[in-house]
Amino acid sequence: MTDILDGPVPAFDSRPGLTRHLVAWFYPYLRGHRLLLVRSLFATVLVLACQLSIPLVVDGLLHKAVVNHKLMAVLIGLVAVQIVGSFEARRAAHVLVIRGATALRGTVFDRLLRSDVVHQRGMARTSLVSRHTSDVDHVATAFEGTVVEGVPALIRIALSLVLLIVIEWHAGLVMALACVLFLVLRSRIGRTLMVRDRARLDSNSRVSERTDESISASRLSSGLNTTRWQHSRFWDRIRLLETATHKQGLSVIQLVVGAEAAGLIGLTVVVFSALTLGANALSSVVAALLYVEGVVRGLEALPPWVRSVQFGVVSQIRIDQILTSPDRICVPTTHESQAPHEGFALVDLSASSGSAFEVISASILLPANCIIGLVTPTGTDPEWLLGLLAGQENPDSGRVQLDDVDVRMPSVRQVAYFVPSEAAGFNTSVLDWLRAADSAMDEAGALSLLNSVMLGHLVDLPAGLTRPLGPMGSQLSAGERQLLSVAVALAAQPRVLLVGSLRSLADPETARSIVSRLRQANSEYTVVSVHDPEVAELADIILFVGADGTHLGTHQELLVNVPGYSRLWEQRLTFGGVDLSVLGIAESEHAGLQTRLVTEQYAPGDFIYREGAPADRIIFTISGQIEIQTSDATGAVRRVAVLGPGNHCGDLRLAVGERRAESAVALDSSVVRSLSREAISAGMMGLLDRTPVERRIVASILKQGSATAAEVAVRLPDVDPALVASSIAMLTNDGALRSVGDVLSVVQKRSVKSGASKLFDRLGDL
Question: pLDDT, tens digit, for every residue of 567-623?
């Protein structure tokens, strides 16, 4: 599909039927408001009748030596009717058009979310946005201009030419005085109009922002079933735009009608002067003046009208590219199931995402009430397969179904929630975003939910939980936006919950908390994308989609029975590009730490971490540049340093409850590798080869402080107390823990390179 915005604009087609075609195209959006069109047309006919009659009345008045009071009254009446009729014709047409434009915007937005162009296939995102704003404006302006300017101007020119005669200079002098009066009026209206122009421009920008958010976060919104909430937010903005447009238009109308009033007042003065002075010859002059004025004004109206029609036709073609685009999701019209499959199942499913990833005739019934880890080959996109499971992608054949109903059906899509990896956000508050899934959510409930996904610190943001987070949620880091999306999905308590490749799931220590929270959610089916072998062990069952087919089993079973699965994990344990010597940890521990590095990507302007957030990992820059920022006592942000590839940042202090002393922001597209505080702690103390339970015991003491053995067991409710006790005994035996009375604390050992101690104690002092 060719994007008109990205190519040359078609030449204006001047065929006679073009205007009729544009009017016919826009007319359906006036449904429910057509009485306004009738009022506008009636008022326009009334104005034209007055314009035709006034010169005849003037001619009759000026041919008599005495004042004809009846004719004078008729003249004054016609002038008043023309002024009122002109205002009503323009006002009715203006209100009609902005309501039609509002309906058109809503239709285009709804079609955009349901069509294939939401993924920007064949169109740039900015072009899609402009179709909701400037393009709709062009069509509306062309329609309004046709009703109140174009057609009336043509009729007026024809009528005036029939009666045109030579202009006399006396009339010109009086009209000049009338123009001065109009300029004074224009100055007063102009100041108001400037303010209203600005207000409308701001409102227009907000509509663009809402549309841009919906495009950027389309997969997230579809997965979380917040389309209705998006519609509500979008309609709030376009109603504000409608109000601002109405106020701006009224100022323009006042300006135009003021010009007409000045001309008509000038005419009245000319007639009165002629009668008073007895200048009989002036009668033909004044009558001619009216028809000349009609021709001139008619000709002046034609160029902008033709230009508006040209813009309107081009914009109509552009808008049609959205309105006529195919549906993104092919909802089945008939049910083709031959053998019912109760539960969540893949039934003869075949689909492909490029040549590197395909599913061929897969038929699997997924187990309920457990955590299912999704694993796909290196270099493939698990989000695509999760999209299939969520009903957000179309298979080549077969289907994914829930209780024998295709997941693409609306009834299923309302209970299946998908959290993609894209770190999207909205310019709304944290609480409002959570209420998109649970309208009854209060601040206490929101804080409890946020704490469960490691986002409790968001309450300390300058915006708190109740104020907007900035465009695209810019006050949050990419990882925080991902976790907030998880919180939204959990708030909805979905039957099916699908979670993409989140950064917090790439590290086993942080993943453990998220998986534990997902397990508590009690969704009937929970599928999580897995990229780490320890996270794979956290899952109850693994769904592996590889080149040799689709397999279901535990992590250990697949390692033993599926060669492609075991080769996959061997490939993923490669590393490079990171100098771990800066940590001051023995080289013998480096290989173990390398396997725990997590690769992250950030767009320009993304927060990697924010000042005040928990100090949970160190960042190694692989490509791009990272700016380190701090804020002073007044809240002003200043640049401290810019770090390029080969550098690292992040606070390595291990005190309980430590917070970031600075922010890190990507200046351009950046790739980094991160290492969690827990992994660094394990490396310092030689615990990388310890069991996961032993590492968790040490991590809990580091994070939450020294504790007795009983208190440690409470901190690990999912672990058998006997296993906790034996693990504590082993750690104490090996000197990793020491006991003072009943209280356990960590014995921290580290080999420190020259200059490394300052890095550990205060990296944030940049």
Answer: 787 666 554 456 676 666 666 666 667 767 777 878 888 888 888 887 778 888 877
What class has domain 344-572? alpha beta
pLDDT given at position 754:
39
Residue 534, token pair as written in the block: 């320890």
CA 11/CA 30 separation, integer angstroms: 28
User: By the 8 A CB rule, do 224 and 415 touch?
Assistant: no
User: Taking Cα atoms as reference points, which of 91, 145, 95 lies closest to residue 257?
Assistant: 91
| Angle of the 677-684 helix axis to the 692-704 helix axis, nearest 10 | 110
* Beta sheet of 416-419, edge-to-edge order: 416-419, 496-499, 525-529, 371-375, 541-546, 549-553
The CA–CA distances, whole Å, from 596 to 35, 374, 381, 674, 676 equal 69, 19, 21, 8, 8
pLDDT at 273: 57
Confidence of residue 657 (pLDDT cuts 50, 70, 90): low
Distance in angstroms (rounded) separating the CA atoms of residues 676 and 598 = 9
For the chain, give the mean pLDDT: 76
Choose among 543, 196, 208, 541: nearest CA to 364.
543
DSSP 352-381: ESSTT-EEEEEEEEEPSSSEEEEE--TTS-
Distance CA 15, CA 8 (A): 20
Give me the numbers of helices (H) and strands (E) for the chain, helices first please.
25, 21
Domain range annotation of the chain: 15-323, 344-572, 580-681, 687-746
Report whether 18 contacts 313 (CB < 8 A).
yes
Which residues are 623's β-sheet partners?
671
Separation CA 450–CA 454 (nearest Å): 6
Rounded to 5°, the CA angle 521-522-526 comes to 85
Instruction: Report the alpha-carbon distance of residue 587 to residue 589 in Å, rounded.
Output: 5
Rounded Cα distance between 596 and 577, Å, is 14
How is residue 376 written in tokens? 């796909």
Instruction: Supply 135's token pair.
Output: 């393009």
Would you call 59 helix, strand, or coil by DSSP? helix
Name which of 312, 321, 325, 310 is nearest 127 in CA terms: 321
Tokens in use for 226? Answer: 């917040």
Amino acid at the residue 541:
I
Q: Within a 10 A sphere around the Cβ of 87, how many other Cβ atoms?
A: 19
Diameter of the chain by CA atoms? 127
CATH, range 687-746: 1.10.10.10
* Range 521-528 average pLDDT: 90
Q: Looking at domain 15-323, does it have CATH number 1.20.1560? A: yes
- For domain 580-681, which CATH number applies: 2.60.120.10, 3.30.70.1400, 3.90.226.10, 3.30.420.40? 2.60.120.10
Q: How many residues does the chain have?
A: 766
Which residues, in sequence order, are bridge partners of residue 529? 374
- CB burial class (10 A; 0-12, 13-18, 19+) of residue 199? middle
